């Protein structure tokens, strides 16, 4: 089974590129972030027409996540919205069962500027995520937590550590929160298969970042140990960043034995 993630940066604005990617790579499961669409206006029918069923947690103009499953069955939704803060109105989390795997699609807060309330929200969100992931881990459910984590884990994951040193994505608190997830037993699939780094998943639209390959890795797939034992391959679909009206992210994917 191939499970992929794509921060699409506006599902309607990028629909031609998104449909193109789905048709060309045919993931069994596709997790989307930053759909920037309300629940009512999400284009579920467009995915249905090409053989996918979808569930989504939308928000007009901002955030929003979705899980698509190839075939006649829709993902079995388990949870929408990350527990732990009843006042959090952001649509950043959706969880579903797909063919015996718990798929968690996240869009973790960016956190800029630092310091400030947005950074505080990011760290609090990461602690809530850790709590939920600990529950999944304790239940011994084959699981993947995949999406835009908005964390550059190590210096090897960015074109220039100095250039990003002041950004929320690289602050020690952000990195420490990410590594606590790994210390809890979750496995970073991309890092496992590419330990030397250099696998960018994001290039800014500004300053010719794509043309100069000034990118960094913030889209991750964290696997429970039992799912990691079934990992066959993983990677990124870099070429899609160079296409017309592309997202500033590229898809990441894993392939696991059924």
From TrEMBL:
Positions of the record's site feature: Transition state stabilizer: 150
Residues flagged as site, Important for catalytic activity: 219
Residues binding Mg(2+), per UniProt: 7, 34, 148, 150, 248-249
Cofactor note: Probably binds two magnesium or manganese ions per subunit.
PROSITE patterns reported for this sequence: AP_NUCLEASE_F1_4 (PS51435)
Listed Gene3D superfamilies: Endonuclease/exonuclease/phosphatase
Pfam family, one: Exo_endo_phos
Ranges for domain Endonuclease/exonuclease/phosphatase: 4-249
EC number: 3.1.11.2
InterPro entries membership: AP_endonuc_1, Endo/exonu/phosph_ase_sf, Endo/exonuclease/phosphatase, ExoIII-like
CDD domains: ExoIII-like_AP-endo
Biological process, per Gene Ontology: DNA repair
Enzyme active site: 107, 148, 249
Record's keyword annotation contains Transmembrane helix: no
GO molecular function: double-stranded DNA 3'-5' DNA exonuclease activity; metal ion binding
Alphabetic keyword roster: Hydrolase, Magnesium, Manganese, Metal-binding
Record carries keyword Translocase: no
Source organism, top-level taxon: Bacteria
Site entry: Interaction with DNA substrate: 249
CC cofactor: Mg(2+); Mn(2+)
Stated family: Belongs to the DNA repair enzymes AP/ExoA family.
Name the UniProt record assigns to this protein: Exodeoxyribonuclease III
Species whose genome carries this gene: Croceicoccus ponticola
Gene name, Swiss-Prot/TrEMBL: xth
């Amino acid at each position: 089974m191939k499970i992929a993630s794509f921060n699409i940066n506006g599902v309607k604005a990028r629909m031609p590129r998104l449909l193109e990617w789905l048709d060309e790579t045919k993931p069994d499961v596709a997790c989307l972030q930053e759909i920037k669409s309300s629940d009512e206006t999400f284009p579920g029918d467009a995915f249905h027409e090409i053989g996918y069923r979808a569930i989504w947690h939308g928000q007009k103009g901002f955030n929003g996540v979705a899980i698509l499953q190839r075939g006649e069955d829709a993902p079995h939704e388990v949870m929408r919205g990350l527990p732990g803060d009843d006042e959090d109105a952001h649509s950043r989390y959706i969880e579903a069962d797909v063919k015996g795997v718990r798929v968690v699609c996240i869009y973790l807060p960016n956190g800029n500027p630092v310091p400030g309330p947005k950074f505080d929200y990011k760290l609090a969100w990461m602690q809530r995520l850790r709590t939920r992931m600990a529950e999944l881990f304790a239940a011994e459910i084959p699981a993947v937590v995949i999406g835009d984590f908005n964390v550059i884990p190590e210096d090897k994951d960015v074109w220039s550590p100095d250039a990003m040193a002041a950004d929320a994505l690289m602050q020690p608190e952000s990195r420490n929160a990410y590594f606590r997830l790994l210390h809890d037993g979750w496995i970073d699939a991309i890092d496992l298969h590419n330990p030397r780094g250099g696998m960018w998943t994001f290039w800014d639209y500004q300053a010719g970042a794509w043309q100069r390959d000034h990118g960094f890795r913030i889209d991750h797939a964290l696997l429970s140990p039992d799912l990691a034992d079934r990992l066959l391959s993983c990677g990124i679909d870099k070429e899609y960043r160079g296409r017309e009206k592309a997202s500033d992210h590229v898809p990441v994917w894993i392939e696991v034995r059924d």
